[in-house]
Amino acid sequence: MENGSYVYDKSRDNGLRYLAGEAFRRSKELAIAKELGVILENPDKTESFELYNSGESERMLALVGEEFGIGVMQTPGKPKEVTAKLFNPHEVIQDLYREMPLDVHTSVVAFDGYIEDGGCLGEKVALLFFKLSANVTGEPTPPMTMEDFSRKTSTYGAVVSDNGIEYFEFIKCCDIKRVSSINSPLDTSLEKKELKEELEKFIKSRQEVVAPDEE
Predict the structure, then answer these.
(1) Beta pairing partners, 86
(2) What are phi and psi of 42, to 5 degrees?
């Protein structure tokens, strides 16, 4: 091992643990982003809709676009449409509402996007939203659809690129905020930890879907 500089030698004891933790976090996040890129290319269903006449869906995509400087890929041959990628629920939780038993499903809705670069298409990214739906226990699972896609059913999401994963949350007053530093060794935020765990549940569910075909 080479001898370090004066700055390195003086900072090593205090900073090396943090630097090692950040390097590991970064490496793991890049691996997850790469795996997600493959998973998001294989949805269970797609649904196209007119971007400029879709109300809540359009507003949500616009908020994410403004915050992260990205655009949504339009459906080939249909410049006013975008295509949503819908995935089967990866988690079902039993709950009660006014003594009514409910099955609450968490699924993923994704869109192909790109980083806006002076009016040109830049690096490809993916917009991912965690979406909730529910049915009375014992009744059929709700169909996969964009008709109920709103900030009431989809509060959290992520932007996935080759450079990593950035999470976001829709908040009151029709706004959005970033949920940053996911999995940082010095960050114990329950919200951030649970978002990471939710994403891992989705990835695991898609691995289980693919596995039987590979045998």
Answers:
(1) 45, 109
(2) -130, 65
Q: What is the DSSP letter of 211?
A: H
Whether the CA torsion 64, 129, 104, 44 is positive or negative: it is positive
Q: Which of 78, 90, 72, 70 is nearest to 131 (CA)?
A: 90
**Lookup: tokens for 79:** 């410049």
Tokens of 48: 């196209």
- Number of Cβ within 10 Å of residue 201's Cβ equals 13
Q: What is the pTM of this model?
A: 0.82
- Best CA proximity match to 159, nearest among 150, 151, 169: 169
- Show me where the domains of the chain are located: 6-214
pLDDT tens-digit map of 81-106: 999 999 999 999 999 999 999 999 99
Q: Which residues pair with 141 in a beta bridge?
A: none
